[in-house]
Design brief:
This protein has a 16-stranded mixed beta sheet, with no helix packed on it. Helix 4 (about 65-80) packs parallel to helix 5. It has helices spanning about 1-10, 20-30, 35, 65-80, 105-115, 180-185, 285, 325-335, 355-360, 375, 390-405, 425-435, and strands at about 55-60, 85-95, 120-125, 130, 145-150, 150-155, 165-170, 175, 195-200, 205-210, 215-220, 230, 235, 240, 250-255, 260-265, 270-275, 295, 315-320, 340-345, 380-385, 410-415, 445-450, 455. The protein is about 25% helix and about 25% strand. The chain has 12 helices and 24 strands. The longest helix has 14 residues, at about 65-80. Helix 8 (about 325-335) links the parallel strand 19 (about 315-320) and strand 20.
Length: about 450
């Protein structure tokens, strides 16, 4: 009985209130700010604690009056008095087709700058209208992270000075013109992480990225084509990238670009290129020759292969096999990658809506007359995900690699999921694979893993 009473006393004690204020503020930085404000009724100590929380998150819901939400955010920010505002996240969704609400973005951002904000995230989904982003941000010397999304329009002056900014994410942001993008990026001399998802309708045709300290760059476009018609004439945009410190590059959905120039990337570690086709120049692949790791999801029929380029640094190559005659691009890359150690092939996913079975099966594999240097002297690991034994060209490519990879230490194959009514085909698939491997002569001791089962051959 006495033990039960002691437990009740301990359980009834307010241990959270006894925590140091610094720790309480860290805890209050986790939930939405609307929830944090309600803690003011807990006790006398909590009454004003919410005013010192260093991280703020505001998010409107679909049922909320946007004008009232905007007013409440402004009122709270005026009452908020932290020594430093570490981050301010605001998300507004307005799907009202009839009205265009007044969003006090200028007030919010102005107060945040006065509070020496370090991270600012503005995510606006406003149906059929955009909000002009306040130019006062472009001279903020405390901002380290800036993320803008959707219904934001930026007219960037030439006097940008954001020396502390290291992370910049622009998702479907509208810019007045080409100079606005150029001014923003050039005004951030210490920028390290840049993400750009281009809007469907964008006035900026040629995107110029000149950033000497940039280490990570991701560019994505929503639509496959960036062709636009201006004055009755068809114009194609492009990309010019000059980033001598670039280490990680991701490019997705470039289609019918006039150019894609990566002028300077000598320390590139990894590049991921997918859904890129019909580029006016052939330098998009050739400019990646300093990369150590490459992931390619391209059609050899729609992309120009560079002449004379050698990938001396490339040790890891990942390729998707969804496109027609993908093996031609594979053999081209093997020929120009003399130090390749790891090769990973990823077949199509039947659940992928963009997959076209007729396209993938077109063409015919022809075994090359010469064996690439990397197969005979460097390749140690070979992986094939969703390997399809029913495709003749896949069996021929797999056999060719295993037969000529003299230093291969491990080959891993995983097949596509088998439906319950097709389980009886599993053993047949294994027999077919073993039959192919019986012709392997290059490696005396290749460790094979097939659907999780290890086999020494």
């Amino acid at each position: 009985m006495k033990r039960c009473l002691r437990i009740r006393v301990v359980m009834g004690k307010d241990r959270i209130t006894e925590l140091p204020e610094e720790l309480l503020l860290q805890i209050l930085s986790l939930p939405p700010t609307k929830t944090v404000i309600t803690t003011s009724v807990l006790s006398k100590r909590w009454r004003s604690l919410w005013k010192l929380v260093p991280k703020l998150k505001f998010e409107s819901d679909n049922q909320e009056d946007i004008a009232k939400f905007s007013e409440n955010v402004g009122r709270f920010l005026l009452s908020h008095k932290p020594p430093v505002l570490e981050s301010l996240h605001i998300k507004v969704i307005d799907k009202n087709k009839e009205t265009r609400c007044s969003i006090d973005v200028g007030v919010w951002v102005g107060i945040a700058i006065v509070r020496h904000v370090r991270e600012l995230v503005l995510d606006l989904f406003l149906l059929n209208y955009s909000v002009r982003f306040p130019s006062s941000v472009f001279s903020c010397d405390t901002l380290e992270t800036l993320k803008l999304k959707c219904s934001v329009l930026a007219d960037v002056p030439s006097t940008v000075c954001m020396k502390s900014l290291r992370t910049l994410h622009l998702v479907s942001v509208g810019f007045k013109d080409n100079e606005s993008v150029r001014n923003l990026i050039s005004g951030c001399p210490n920028l390290e992480d840049l993400l750009i998802h281009r809007a469907t309708r964008c006035k900026v045709l040629t995107l110029v990225i000149a950033a000497p300290s940039l280490k990570r760059l991701s560019i994505h476009r929503k639509r496959l084509s960036i062709h636009r018609k201006i004055g009755g004439q068809k114009e194609a945009g492009g990309y010019v990238i000059n980033a001598p410190s670039l280490e990680y590059l991701k490019i997705r959905r470039f289609n019918h670009c006039e150019c894609c120039l990566i002028e300077n990337a000598p320390v590139l570690v990894k590049a991921t290129i997918s859904n890129v086709s019909y580029i006016g120049n052939e330098k998009i692949l050739g400019s990646l020759k300093s990369a150590k790791r490459l992931s390619l999801d391209l059609s050899p029929l729609e992309i120009k292969c560079p002449t004379g380029a050698i990938f001396y640094q490339l040790v890891y190559l990942e390729m998707y096999t969804r496109e027609a005659e993908w093996w031609n691009l594979l053999m081209f890359m093997l020929d120009i990658s003399p130090k390749l150690q790891v090769l990973k092939l990823i077949d199509h996913d039947k659940d992928d809506a963009s997959y076209n079975d007729d396209v993938v099966t077109s063409g015919k594999w022809n075994e090359p007359k010469y064996v690439p240097e990397c197969l005979s002297s460097c390749l140690e690991t070979f992986v094939w995900i969703r390997y399809g034994l029913e495709r003749e060209e896949e069996k021929e490519v797999a056999t060719y690699i295993l037969k000529n990879a003299e230093l291969l230490k491990k080959a891993t194959f995983s097949t596509r999921p088998i439906e319950s009514e097709e389980l009886n085909k599993l053993e047949e698939r294994r027999k077919l694979l073993l039959n192919e491997l019986s012709r392997v002569k290059a490696s005396n001791s290749c460790h094979l893993v097939f659907d999780g089962e290890s086999i020494i051959i």
